[in-house]
Structures are given as structure tokens and as C-alpha cells.
Design brief:
Blueprint: E1 2-4, H1 7-14, H2 19-22, E2 41-47, E3 53-64, E4 79-81, E5 98-100, E6 106-111, E7 116-119, E8 123-124, E9 127-132, H3 148-151, E10 165-169, E11 171-173, E12 180-182, E13 186-187, E14 193-195, E15 201-203, H4 212-224, E16 228-230, H5 233-240
Parallel strand pairs: 1-16, 11-12
Antiparallel strand pairs: 2-3, 2-9, 3-6, 3-7, 4-5, 6-15, 7-14, 8-13, 9-10
Length: about 240
Amino acid sequence: MSLIILPHILAASEQPQYATQSQFKDTSEDLKRMRIVEGKPALLVVLDADKQVLASSVGYTQWSSGRPQLPLAEFGVSYTYRKAADKGDPATNFDTEERRLPIMPALRFNPTSKFAIDIRNSGTAAQAFIIVDQDEVRSKTDITDWPNEIWDGSAPLDVAQLTYKYFDMAVGLHDSQAPLQLTRLDMSKSDVNLPLVSKFIDVYFTNMFHDWSDAKAQMEAALNRLSSVDTLKSGAEIEALGE
């Protein structure tokens, strides 16, 4: 099989002001399908291995298209931004190429208490959840407006029994790739609160450019199955004929 990529499609898909990339901008109307998670009251809860709530904080969700410091270079990943030259055949002529990183949208949790979450019990953090009230009944600023059993740490939390939507997150230190990064994993009630590394938490979903090591291998495997790639129909036809 041969694949023909029209140069105009390359330009349209890569230029940030065109629809393919601009749909991920915070101000884009194309985001309306994903606004169902925008500005919703939410809880962050950090659990130990026994599902005991160690820390919790209230806040809200926000759709974000920021560019995080993910180690893309070590996976050999980069995008090329091309635009057709002013003169000559647009099918074969492009202006100077520029390196670009892909836009990576994320669901952002903004805690009301910036940089800190309240500690409820002593223990070692093992996992965390962002619990979202899509009906917008609960408070974005007052954690006591939420059911106590979710956040106060008086009993183990079974998220499977919740009526709210939630996201499961890994927990790690500041030099890890975990969505929730803490300055330390061991918590003590005597510390009152646990500082966060960042004032917000970005959650990246599967197949949204988060695990580049696997994504790159999958893209290469798909491209290697193609017998030819060309920007001209004639080139693909010649390859198909074995010339």
C-alpha cells in the first residue's frame, strides 16, 4: 500500500492557527465538546496502600493546553512546522522548517489552597484521585460542603462506590513523571499540610501524547507497514509499478 500526503494537508494540520491545532487552544470554540469537564467542583484525595485518606483539598477542573516539561527529546520526538513557499510549486516547495512541540491538552485540577493540601492522617502516599462533581452541586472552595467520608480520613475510601466521576493518578516526587508530584511521600498529621510541587495538577489521558516511548514505537510500526510515502501521486504510482 502507498500513502499520498498532500502538502496542503501537511501545512493545514501543523500550522497553529489552523483548525487541527487551534482546536486545542483554551479560547477555541472547538473545545465545546470537552467543556463538560470545565469549571467543575472537584476534590483531590491522596491515599495510602490501605485506601486511607492521607490528604485532601477542594478545587475545580479546567481544560488546559499548556506545554508541560515532558522529556520528549529523549524519545526522539519532534514536530516539523511547514508552510508553502511564496513561489514555485506548492506541492514540492516549502519555506524553512521550524521545530515545534505538539500541543498536549490536559485536564487541570486547581486546588483552592495553592501549593498545599491538608493532611488528614499519617502514612505513605500510594495513589491519588480527582473526584469531580459534574452536576456542579458541591462547592469549589469549601471542602465541608462535600460528604465527609470522601475527604476527612475517618474511614478508608472505596472510590468504586462513589456516585461521582473520578480520575486515578500516580503519585511521585518532584523528579518523577507522576501527575501528582509531592516534595515527600511520607505524611504526618503534625505537619498540618503537605506542599505540592506545582500550584495545579495536569492529568494527561491515554493516547494524548503522554507516554511518548510507546507512542513513537506505534507510529514507527504503522509507517513501516507502508510501502511508500509521497507528496506526489506520480511518485506513488511509480513505486507501485516497481519502477
